[in-house]
Amino acid sequence: MKKINSRVVWFVLTVALFVLGSGAPEAGGGIINSIITFPGW
Amino acid sequence: MILLAAVIAGLTLGLIRAKVGNRPYRPFSMRWGWMVLVALIIQWLAFGFPLTRAIYPDEAASISLVLSQVILLIFAWFNRKIPGFWLLITGLVLNLLVISLNGGFMPISPETTHWLRGDPISAGWEVGERLGTGKDVVLPVEQTKLEFLSDRFRTPDNPYYRVAFSAGDVLIAFGAFWLLWSVGGRSEQNSRKET
Q1: Which sequence ranges are marked TM in the entry (chain B) (predicted)?
Q2: In whole angstroms, what is the distance from residue A21 CA to residue B40 CA?
Q3: pTM, full prediction
Q4: pLDDT digits (tens, 9 = 90+) for B10-37
């Protein structure tokens, strides 16, 4: 299996995080809220 | 999720483009990438992490939102020569502008909130107040400054998936797509020149 290039992963991650931080929540920015939550809180 | 869809589509088509052109998918070197992480942590503490978002007053949350977007803007400015970044910058500026002029939150009309929530009445939200612990504030159209830049656009109506988004979000989505698509078209020679 081809090794995943860490530079590509970092690049895509940076773009994705930038986009989520820049945009309105209902357009995708709010996904941070829904992914990083803890049960019962 | 137009923003995430743009990232996924740009990455997928960029990878296909690189494969078809027999080129490696070689990303651009972005400067000051840690700023994105700092901005996201600021937002996460204000809007995401349940322990902290519950104790953040609205004012602190709005300051956090504006501050994090300013940090993202500085990061984008440092990287403005990379394809797609001018669209990202323009979209971010438009969102930042409308947020700053409306009390530090993204305005959304009561009508759009009704549509979004699918509620016949305003359950759990009030006009003039922040929408839950999120980034939006419910404001009537006539009280919204630069209303055309607010979360006023809607996805095609269906009961399963409803999203409101702004003009800035559209530009950010196109910018992200263009950026990730461009990576697939880079030649080895151009990549080496940059490094």
Answers
A1: 28-48, 60-78, 84-105, 160-181
A2: 6
A3: 0.86
A4: 999 999 999 999 988 989 999 999 999 9
Map chain A to HEC letters. Answer: CCCCCHHHHHHHHHHHHHHHHHCCHHHCCCHHHHHCCCCCC
- Token look-up 């519950």 returns B54
Contacts of B40 in chain A (CB under 8 A): 17, 20-21, 32
Nearest beta carbon to residue A19 from set B7, B75, B106 = B7
Q: Which span out of B94-98, B127-131, B153-157 was modeled with the highest average pLDDT?
A: B94-98
Tokens found for residue B150: 């607010």
Candidates A13, A14, A22, A33, partner chain B, best to mutate (most B CBs within 10 A): A22
As given in the structure block, the two tokens for residue B26 are 């070689």
The complex's ipTM works out to 0.87
* Pairing verdict, β B136-138 and B164-165: unpaired
Rounded-to-integer distance, Cα A38 and Cα B50, Å: 8
pLDDT tens digit sequence for B96-130 = 999 999 999 999 999 888 888 776 666 677 888 88
